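In response to a reviewer's request, we include the raw inputs and outputs for one of the modeled complexes. The two entities were modeled together in a single run.
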Amino acid sequence: MSAVIAKLNVRQFSLLSAAVFAAILPHLSRLPWSLTLLLPVLLFARWWQRRWRPTPVSALLKLPLALLIVALTLMQYGNVFGREPGSALACGMLVLKLVESETARDARAAVLFAAFVLMSALLFAQSLFYTAFLMLVLILLLAVLRQLQAQPANTSVAWRPQLMHYLRDAGLSLLAGAPLALCAFLLIPRFTSPLWGAPNDGDSARTGLSDRMSPGDISNLLNDDSPAFRVGFNGEAPAPAKRYWRGPVLWNFDGRAWTRPEWADTAAQVTITASGAVIDYDVTQEPSSQRWMLALDVPIDVPADATRFTDLTVSGRHRDTTNPHRYHLRSVMDYVLQPELSTTERRHALQLPRGFNPRSVALAQQLRAAHPDDDVALVREVLQRFRSDYTYTQAPPELGRESVDEFLFDTRAGFCEHYSSAFTFLMRAAGIPARVVTGYQGGYFSNVGRYLLVRQSDAHAWSEVWLPQRGWVRIDPTAEVSPSRIELGATATRGGDGESWYHPEWIASLRNQFDLANRWWNEAVVQFNALRQAGLLQPFGIEHADYGQLAWLLSGCISVILAGMTLWTLRRSRGAGDALDRSYALLCRKLARAGVKRGTSEGPRDFCARAAASLPESAAAIRALAQRYVNLRYAHALCVSAELHLFDRAVRTLRVSKRKP
Amino acid sequence: MNRREHAVTGASTTRERLLQVAEKRLPSLTRLRQAETLPIRLHRHRIYVLPTRYGLAFALMLFVMLMAALNYGNNPALLLTSLLGAALLTSVFRAVRNLDQVELLSVQVAPVHAGEAMNFTLNFTAPERAHYGLCLSGTFGEMPFDLLPQQENRISVELATERRGWLAPGRLQISTDYPFGLFRPWSYLNPQLRFLVYPKLETNAPGFPLATRAEGQRAMRGADDEFANLRDYRHADAQRLIAWKASARHDRLLVRELERRQGIELLFDWAQLPELSYETRISRLAAWVNNAAAAGMRYELVLPQQHLAPDSGEAHRHACLQALALMPGAQQ
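The model returned the following structure tokens for the whole complex.
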């Protein structure tokens, strides 16, 4: 066909270039920097060249370029297979395709390839807005295809309206396909296990909580407003001050950092005497490079594929760096945890490095002397000191080797990490078993979505001390210094640090609304798996739909949708002539109701003359209408739609009273 | 189309021969219809659609994307793939609808002589909506066009002519690659039309004889007629017009050529040209008719079975050319 061989004109090539650029755009930040620089430059240079000197690019240039792109990929990744090298190579080849594109056929091939590149971008990130952006690029790709049709030679339509027309057309096509796509999305049977290796490289995932805490670590998280996890409660959510999300418990202190020792990763029976109500909830954790799972303090039931260690740290079997992880937990809030402490555990809970923080050790011994037998009074006194003399800040001064000493006696300012660290140190030095618990505190409860959103900035650290008979008791020294941190959440405490100007209320509320959409997206789309698909037919009485049933349903739905669209396509169109017929038929019905029926062989003139004669009250109107009908029907070659409309209105407004007998 | 025409045009390729067989044996399948009267409106019973090669390639790519998305359990990718697939699949409906209700109202041509290109103007209407990316193909090649609603859309194509006589545009295929070029619906238009192709004009035809008929002679202007020039005597020139003196001087017969010929009535007689071949005779007579008409003279045409009385004007010229075009041996 000549249409295929046709050379691309400037508009077609420009739109194609834009579409190719949009397709590689999501990849750019991930590509090796050499390609990140090379590809956009190459693309722009080619567009410029085609725009001003429309000649084909010589093979002498194309071949080295192709080799260069392969070489750069190999240099970065070592091979060309796998997710990252593969997508880098695909981006490069797509730009090369643009370099050699001259005809409509080339452009179509480029669009085909761009669709693949676009999809591969989703292997790296799957958030709502990322996907939404890719859908917009899809519109651009369809617009390119739409523009490639054979066009009449001498059209001179302005570029902008034409482009808008194409984009609108492409957008409408996507909309028209939406029901079918939704149906396919829901019902295409999912694989329960992958056919070939699934991606498992964790470099791109978020860090999340680590099993190490030293001043400054959590601080990075505190400024990270991305979601950490979301919680849906079966019942009421606990009060904000009680939302302690337990992460890894840290036992070892080396003078500088708190770490989690290996021995702590042992599962053993833990005595928990619960007195309050059991809280049932589902946590959806964002992709993370850590295996820790977050549980409301304290968890009593964990999923089968998770382990709860002796210190109630919950760990998943494996980490998932690309997909959100969803799990169900049960917790209690009023409890007595481990009323009996074994000697080993006691030893671990009292461990302190030698030769560090002498002033703090002296303070602890002084406090112990003041309260020889009363642990509770000792704890109270320390908290009292914090309350009166210390301030909360997220930008604390630097600390030296004697970090606890310097914090307790010199700087006296810090955040959760400093307080829990110093508090636990003092407790241990005073002979009270204590440990640091890291996790999250607070969260934003969305009344619309009925779920709790916990951000990375809600990261927190607190202490647990072991008291005889009462077991492990949670003490949050930060709460003494900055009660609002606990009552209102991390964002409320940012005020004093001079960064509030870009976090006004409305932006915060907008962000929370925004998260609602993200959560919905995660729940409904990203985590839709084989298991949930199998439960899809539960409302119809099928507990566990198998592949066969899904396939039947899928083909059934597709058939129904396609049949509907076929009917739409083939529906009898209401042409201009038909509109006139309809108006005339209405006139005949009105007159028939008034008692004058049209004979089968009666023409409009005769019939209306007869009607006018027997209905003298509206005779003039009927005669006028008859004349207009005859004119419209027989006088003009093509009916003018405005006149048709007027005639129709006149017929509709005609009132005919019944013929008197 | 009838068998004789197939024999005449000759089915050159296997594909065309197969199409002819299909047309004869399975008219309902191929729907290559008998010629119809205008106007012809396309509707669902006569629109066919198949995916293009590009459509098939895209289907393959979508399958690859689907497999990748399913394998990685990547739901957004699956959603993207299904959305793209659904949009492309449902484009078949828009494609068919793009051809539906297109109507060929009329066809106009300007008369031409054999050997010249015949300019066909097809007048399409679209009763409701615009139709984009249509393509008309036939013996003339391909002609892309758009239709705008509620107005006359004139599409001009050029058709080569070879022989005098009737020329039918034949079966025209109308197709579209709207909206994305993945499906190609098509339909055939076979309007029952034929146009007359006038005989080929003889190139460098000699000037026409100035013979007049005795009985048809009008009052000739006398010697006061202005002589434009003299030319060689030709067989069938009237003796009256020979310039005897000039002929004597130049030692050959010369005739006076009159500048004002309105008054003269010419006679173009088939029998005057016995030395020429059949078709050449027709060509020469056609050329003469044209020349005489261009000069605004009255002329008479005598053919073996037809006689057109002397007259002037366009209507007369067309009548004469038509008579010549339809002389036995014309294309039917």
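As requested, we also summarize the result in words. Confidence is low (pLDDT under 50) at residues 1-10, 214-227 of chain B. Chain B touches chain A through 58 residues (CB under 8 Å).
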